[in-house]
Amino acid sequence: MKKIHWTYSVAVVSGVILGVTSLTASAKEFISIGGGGTGGTFNTLASGVASRMNDTFDDVRFTVEGSAGSTENIRRIGSGDLQMGITFTGDSYLAANGLEDFAETGTVDNVRFLGFVFSAVSQLVTTADSGIESIADLEGHRISVGSAGSGTAQTMDRILEYFDLEDRVSTSYINGSQSSDQLRNGQLDAYHGQWGVPAGAIVDTTSSLDAKLISTYDELKDADFFDAYPFYSEAIIPAGSYSGIDYDVKSIRDIGILVASEDVSDDLAYRILESLYSEEGLEHMRAVSNTTREMSLENGVSGGNFIPLHPGAEQFWRDQGIELPQ
């Protein structure tokens, strides 16, 4: 009789333990982060954020979902399919204002800024003897603007349209490595990339070809390009960034940022930034990709002046003594 009683007690206790374990597991929060294409910068960085967070938190599980990139990540945060993502400042601005790709589908107003991730620098590459010295000189030439639908292509398409060149150049929509190959083989006169510096495709080009990079910032500024596209800013590609490029190149950049849905709790948003922008977190992100070398507390709110800051992010950056964007 005692033995039966003991067995029953064990069963009850085991049931309680299993029940508590099940409740604990079901209480864990799940966060999906929008990345990009396999092997691309966005997916690599999103994976870096997720791995850092999973090493930090026991109560939240972070996963990465592949996507077409910045615009898709914004749309999916808007629909509630994603909770976080890597996006460009420009796309976030356009979404918040219902412009360009968002003109027909409407504004996406639930995306909130968390922090700066990397600079995506516009880089215009041509051969040393092409005769191309400016944007205006592209007329009559063959240029790859970037992969179709990419931020790279969108930037160059905006520039060509602004300068009324879209029908006066021959454009291709191919990726960086293909562009480098075709420039080297004489199939292109120039190509454009919006990447971190140094970019692999341009390293390949400049190490195998007498090439040059074109400074575009002054020409764009003089044409009031930034009045139409305020989310771009000046970027300097330092001399020596590429083989044979022994001069500074003045260009423009869009900014890759980490964003979250407004539904992410203030406490979680704060904890994410506290982990990511710690010394250990920044070292982790730099090990993930050299494009994050500008990530720092000092640069943390760069790109944060076009969409609202998440309240948790606002509190975090205030606590670090960082002046918030207006």
UniProtKB/TrEMBL annotation:
CDD domains: PBP2_TAXI_TRAP. It comes from the Bacteria. It holds the Pfam family NMT1_3. Signal peptide: none annotated. InterPro entries: TRAP_TAXI (IPR011852). PANTHER family: SLL1037 PROTEIN (PTHR42941). This is TAXI family TRAP transporter solute-binding subunit. It comes from Halomonas citrativorans. The lineage of its organism: Bacteria, Pseudomonadati, Pseudomonadota, Gammaproteobacteria, Oceanospirillales.
